[in-house]
Amino acid sequence: TWLEYSVHHGELKMNKKPRRRGIYTMYHGTTVANARLIIPNGFQRSKVGLLGEGVYVTRDVLKACNYPRNSALSDRVVLKLRVRLGKCKEIRDDKDPLLTTWSKNGFDSAWVPPDAKMASVPSGLQENCVFDPRRVEVVGIPSGQLGATQKPRNCGIYTMYHGTSVASARLIIANGFMQSQGGMLGKGVYVSRDQTKAERYPLNNPASDRVVLELLVRVGRVKRINKDNHPLQYTWNEEGYDTAWVPPNCGMKAVPSGLEEDCVFDPKNIKVVAIRNRGCLRRRRFRR
User: Fold this and answer.
1) Is the predicted pLDDT of residue 161 greater than 90, yes or no?
2) What is the pTM of this model?
3) Which positions fall inside the PARP catalytic domain (predicted)?
4) Which domains does the chain show, CATH number per domain?
5) Strand runs labelled E in 177-248
């Protein structure tokens, strides 16, 4: 499959019908536990719902933030998606003959516009249902942004960055990360929530040979390392931690820049979702 590093060209106004075979930015609200399953394994088709079987998504991020309805706010995650809608059926009536059978009539997705005034959509907000989960790809977590000074929550999923060379970026995109065998925090994959820090790496490479990868990172259990010669500086993983975190401006001589840094022990907890360069999202494609 192709991984396309720009989805912003696919944004639509809420009341505009998706074009056939269009690729769009959409959102899905779920629980933390479900998000952990969806990110590595992909979506599963819901068996029931307003529009029948499929994956329920929306272009309205505020609507996605309201789901799951019975979950606490602390247990809600919004996934940012890249969605290939295919042939789309517009549904405006609760009694539409294809309300739940559109997929059996040659359509790949169904769309309820925001002005449909359907009794089954009391919020009046836009909604889509995509029959084939393979048409839906997670590309980010809007709610996963943290300030550089905020400690990552245990088990959280966050947007982070990694600076590398063009050649290494191609290998990482194709095969995933490999664990570094050494570094200021020992073994692991070194990442940062500070994109400007990632843009500096590799330190000795020219700017033309630097690539910044945008990542989704499952941090697991986090250990704060905020001083030189910390007793767990290199052994945090042996003590049951999944990630080590160096907060910004903590005064460590090993971090002269004073910028935030993380080390994730297991590379499988990191997924590349985009390429960023000099702060701009570029439209580039690489084979996975």
Assistant:
1) yes
2) 0.53
3) 25-96, 160-232
4) 23-140 (3.90.228.10), 143-276 (3.90.228.10)
5) 189-191, 211-218, 222-224, 243-246
